[in-house]
Structures are given as C-alpha cells and as structure tokens.
C-alpha cells in the first residue's frame, strides 16, 4: 500500500485549509487506498531557511525529519490556501528547502479559499515552482471554494457524497502516478 505525505501548508491562526488535509487523511485510510500522515507546517514552525537543506551546515532535527518524510513518501498531497492570488510563504519555504527529495515525486495539489474560486489562482504558481525542481505534478486538481462551509473543523465534509466523488477522481490520478513511477524505477 502506498504512503502519502499530506502537507498542510497554512500556519495562520484559525486556518481552514487544514480541514481539507484532515479529510484526505481520513479518506485515504478509511478507503484503504494508502497510509497517510499530515505534515503540518504550523506544528513544524520552521524559520525562513537561508539555504537548501543539502547545503546547510547544521540542519535542525525537524528539518532532517521533514526531508526524510518527503523523500520516503510514495507521493505528496499538498493542501494550500490561496493568499492574495499566491500560496503561503510557509509552503514556498519548504518547497525551496528540498531538491533531490522532490525529484520525480508525484505531487497532487488541493487548493482552498473562503471565496468562490477555491484557490484556483494559486495552482499555476505552485505548479511552476514544483516543475522547476523536477517534481511530478498530477494533472488532477482539487479546489475547495468556501472551505469554511465545505468542511467542519475535524475535516468532515458537509456534502460527503459529492466530496467523496470528487476526491475519488483526484486521488485516482495521484495513485496512478505513484504506480507508474514504481514501474519506472529500477
């Protein structure tokens, strides 16, 4: 069974995108599609990195742990809010921290906002950053408009049937990429 690291990228107080991360962890595990763990950037509370991990002289244990979790995951699911048309600095910070760990890593993107567009403006800028470091971004997306109404604080969707249907297609693409990569890697 594949293992998926879910990055919950918002570090704001009263954040809502973390609800989506909780939903995906539960969805993957309850449907026995993959094991999953949430890498909550609010809990890591990383400083602004001044250098990539491979060039740091004394990386913190948390930094090394995070890098290892990304490296060892079969795929990564990033859940990010949209802040003024972009993604949060906390996410950019950890994307740029790593390099080899992202190489050909299947990465799915779920965006969230409190508005009607569901964070769709952030997708291209995040995809571009991931492409530049050679991550394999999955073509399927999972935007969540009005995230505060779509999920409760525990990650339960208000319309479970419709959300699960959308999630099935989204996760199917991530799992396909994970499987394809496993067949290509010697």
Automatic annotation (TrEMBL):
GO molecular function, one term: FMN binding
Cross-referenced InterPro entries: Flavoprotein-like_sf, FMN_Rdtase-like_dom, NAD(P)H-dep_reductase
Domain NADPH-dependent FMN reductase-like, first and last residues per copy: 3-146
Domain of life: Bacteria
One Pfam family this sequence matches: FMN_red
GO cellular component: cytosol
Positions of transmembrane segments: none
Coiled-coil stretches noted in the UniProt entry, renumbered to this chain: none
Protein name: NAD(P)H-dependent oxidoreductase
UniProt lineage: Bacteria, Pseudomonadati, Bacteroidota, Sphingobacteriia, Sphingobacteriales
């Amino acid at each position: 069974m594949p293992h998926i690291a879910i990055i919950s990228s918002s570090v704001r107080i009263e954040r809502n995108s973390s609800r989506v991360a909780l939903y995906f962890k539960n969805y993957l595990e309850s449907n026995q599609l993959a094991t999953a763990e949430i890498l909550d950037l609010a809990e890591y509370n990383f400083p602004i990195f001044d250098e990539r991990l491979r060039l740091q002289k004394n990386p913190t244990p948390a930094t090394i742990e995070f890098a290892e979790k990304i490296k060892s995951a079969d795929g990564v699911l990033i859940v990010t809010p949209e802040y003024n048309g972009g993604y949060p600095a906390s996410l950019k910070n950890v994307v740029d921290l790593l390099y080899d760990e992202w190489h050909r890593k299947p990465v799915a993107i779920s965006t969230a906002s409190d508005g009607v567009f569901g964070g769709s403006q952030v997708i291209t800028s995040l995809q571009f950053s991931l492409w530049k470091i050679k991550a394999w971004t999955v073509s399927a997306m999972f935007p969540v408009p009005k995230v505060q109404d779509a999920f409760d604080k525990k990650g339960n969707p208000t319309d479970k049937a419709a959300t699960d249907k959308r999630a099935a297609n989204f996760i199917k693409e991530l799992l396909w990429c994970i499987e394809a990569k496993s067949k290509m890697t010697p």
